[in-house]
Design a protein that fits this description.
Layout (H helix, E strand, L loop, with lengths): L17 H6 L7 H16 L1 E5 L5 E3 L10
Antiparallel strand pairs: 1-2
Length: about 70
C-alpha cells in the first residue's frame, strides 16, 4: 500500500473502510479465503501512512472507523 500511496482509512459511499469489508460476515468461507482475509488484516494493522500527523506520529489504520448502519 505504501508504494502506491494507498490509504486504508478511505471510505466508500457507505462509509466502509477496507477493514469493514474484510471483516464483514459471510457464510461459509473456505479455509483459503479465511487465510487470505487474515493476511490482509495483518497487512492493514502494520500499515503506516506517509503523511505526518500532529506530534510527529505517522498515520495508522483507524480501528474506530464507523460505517453506516442499515
Amino acid at each position: 500500500m505504501t508504494e502506491l500511496n494507498g490509504n486504508p482509512n478511505k471510505k466508500n459511499a457507505r462509509d466502509e473502510t477496507c477493514l469493514h469489508i474484510l471483516c464483514s460476515a459471510r457464510s461459509q468461507l473456505t479455509a483459503e479465503e479465511l487465510e487470505v482475509r487474515l493476511f490482509c488484516v495483518d497487512l492493514l494493522l502494520q500499515w503506516s501512512g506517509v503523511a505526518e500527523q500532529t506530534a510527529g506520529n505517522e498515520e495508522k489504520l483507524d480501528l474506530a472507523a464507523v460505517d453506516q448502519v442499515s
